[in-house]
Amino acid sequence: MSLIVLFVPIICYAQDEWQLVFHDEFDGETVNWEVWHSEHGFVRNEEDQWYQPENANTRNGFLILEGRIDSIPNPQYTEHARDWRKRRPYAKYSSGSINTRGTFSFLYGRLEVRARIPAVMGSWPAIWTLGTSMPWPSCGEIDVMEYYHINGTPHILANAAWGNDLPNNAVWDSKRIPYQHFLDKDPYWNEKFHTWVMDWQEDYLRIYLDDELLNEVSLNKTQNGGIGHHRNPMQQPHYILLNLAIGGINGGRPQHDAFPMLYQIDYVRVYQKK
């Protein structure tokens, strides 16, 4: 099993100001299911994949979230159902999605994830957090990384979202960086691992990719509307999610010759000030 380490001094940040409060290096024989929970079935965003724990594995020191072409009967299938989760008789794809809900959450600090993403059509990998209280979007959402195609052009995104006065309607602060921006700097970018960092302090949120600032959000403006009781969801603990979605409202039509899609995560680390 991989280990969770609490309050271990580190030297990754200057002057011993920071300590490691959570980490998983994924060096065990399997995912540590005492810490990570798997999502199951059709979950959100009309995505095409069926989430199942079988698609989340550790190998050679990496977490592998694997997207596969599949054919999985939907036990909730109802021919004339309004809910998209029930309208589909089967899932054409399977994939993995894990999170730390109920086992680890944190308020402020630095989340660091080193990963290699499948940058292909239909792929929608993400590193993100959700607040531990209130329904979405009043709980608050921080997208440290998303990748998908927008109008046919691949992008990497760094976002924050919170609630307004309409049910299931979010206010977004979103930065969308064309994927070509990264390829221009390194034509072999897609073959390499990269480091995403969320620097989350009491008054701001900053998201970096390989030390390049992608988005900065002032927490003075991340105030919920009436549904969220006018609270600031970025000033409550959040838990961590890692997933590889396929298709759906943003992923686009999957590129079949890209399967199996492999989203590889080297480590997840959270630091907080002493």
How would you characterize this protein structure?
- A hairpin with a 2-residue loop joins strand 15 (204-209) and strand 16.
- It is globular, with a radius of gyration of 18 Å.
- It is built from 3 helices and 18 strands.
- Strands 1, 2, 4, 5, 6, 7, 9, 14, 15, 16 and 18 form an 11-stranded mixed β-sheet that branches. The protein has a 7-stranded antiparallel β-sheet with strand order 3-8-17-10-11-12-13.
- It has 274 residues and is mainly β.
- The relative contact order is 0.24.
- It has helices spanning 84-87, 180-185, 248-251, and strands at residues 8-9, 18-24, 37-38, 49-51, 56-59, 62-73, 90-95, 97-99, 109-116, 123-131, 141-150, 153-163, 170-178, 194-200, 204-209, 212-218, 238-246, 261-273.
- The chain has a single domain, classed as Sandwich (Jelly Rolls), CATH 2.60.120.200.
Write the layout of secondary structure elements.
Blueprint lengths: L7 E2 L8 E7 L12 E2 L10 E3 L4 E4 L2 E12 L10 H4 L2 E6 L1 E3 L9 E8 L6 E9 L9 E10 L2 E11 L6 E9 L1 H6 L8 E7 L3 E6 L2 E7 L19 E9 L1 H4 L9 E13 L1
Parallel strand pairs: 4-7
Antiparallel strand pairs: 1-2, 2-18, 3-8, 5-6, 6-7, 6-18, 8-17, 9-14, 9-18, 10-11, 10-17, 11-12, 12-13, 14-15, 15-16
